[in-house]
């Protein structure tokens, strides 16, 4: 990740161990040469953004800045001397990737946080820990674009087309891929979580002490234990059991057909090499299935009622966005009061394994924007359809405009009071009296 940066330093004769101001300037010149856009920070440092001319993507910029921070943190700590029982720093200055001004500002700000040591669930902390951690301290910060999740930002017709495409892929996939896709669609779990499903996670989900019949317990993103529960339909659970008894047993070294006979760590979904099915292998199969679905939807065939459409390119992770979007939409439809919606959305956050509800807000905002765009586009289409298209249709709106021009003004109305009712004349007289005063 840092090899291009070190190459840039070597090409220009710059040293990585220079003073912090010099290292920051070298890094700024490297980013400019890489085609990135830079903007001065409001307090200190620089905002950076990937452009069409830069070979680095936005996620690549995040990794690059994080790698630089880690590199100088390690160099600042140095190597440990067992004889002297201390570290010898390899970089003599503070980490140049952090802003001294922003670090001081954050430290001062945290002094004013009430009950700073309390957890969020206590409800007495004046600022959530997520908000406290969100305060930037880096000298180089990647400029964040508003997050609009796929599917949520699309029109309703596009969402239904993607859903139809996923159903087509499920119906025409092999048993292993079919049950994986069904679990992704019904539970909204991440692809990595479903692919890493173990026999122990499946067995523990059937424990009656859990209190509800979940499909499996999987390892949530960033966790080490299988504690995240995912729910699926009875048909999906039956299909999973059939896959274990038939297709998986052919790849199992001992030919085991029941999940009860497998070790806790044994993966449920096996590849041809009899190992856990990886994301790359599943992704290549999904691409072939998607291409077949795109050909199907692109050609109406012999069915006169079939709808021809261009099925958008999607990835397995798009199915998670699809599930979340329809769940949020259903919450909007079923619950009218804000309190009910909030409780339902909190349950959705737990089901999807998010750390906070901030991600859910992006879905809600993206769906609202998509609905407004769709409403505006529909209004414009209706306006264009109602617009005059020849001399005959143009005569009606022009005639109405002439009638409006011939209508008497307020002064004309006052001059022709005999045309008004008694109540209207009294109102005009009251207005004239106020004017005279």
Please outline what is shown here.
Helices cover 54% and strands 6% of the residues. The chain has helices at 3-12, 20-33, 58-77, 100-111, 129-133, 156-171, 175-187, 191-195, 199-205, 234-245, 247-251, 279-298, 318-334, 338-352, 358-386, 391-406, 410-415, 422-436; strands spanning 37-40, 46-49, 79-81, 86-88, 140-142, 216-219, 226-230. It is extended and about 105 Å long.
Question: Order of helices and strands, N to C?
Answer: HHEEHEEHHEHHHHEEHHHHHHHHH
Approximate strand percentage: 5-15%
- Based on CA atoms alone, the radius of gyration comes out at 32 Å
Give the mean pLDDT. Answer: 82
| Adjacency order of strands in the biggest sheet | 1-2-5
Structural class: mainly alpha
Separate helix tally: 18
Task: Please describe the biggest sheet, giving its number of strands, its sense, and whether it closes into a barrel.
Answer: 3 strands, mixed
Helix content: 40-55%
Shape: extended
Would you report the number of β strands? 7
How far is the first residue's CA from the last residue's CA? 80 Å
Q: Ranges with pLDDT <50 over ≥5 residues?
A: none
Explain the layout of strands and helices.
Blueprint: H1 3-12, H2 20-33, E1 37-40, E2 46-49, H3 58-77, E3 79-81, E4 86-88, H4 100-111, H5 129-133, E5 140-142, H6 156-171, H7 175-187, H8 191-195, H9 199-205, E6 216-219, E7 226-230, H10 234-245, H11 247-251, H12 279-298, H13 318-334, H14 338-352, H15 358-386, H16 391-406, H17 410-415, H18 422-436
Parallel strand pairs: 2-5
Antiparallel strand pairs: 1-2, 3-4, 6-7
Helix pairs in contact: 6-7, 6-12, 7-10, 7-13, 13-14, 13-15
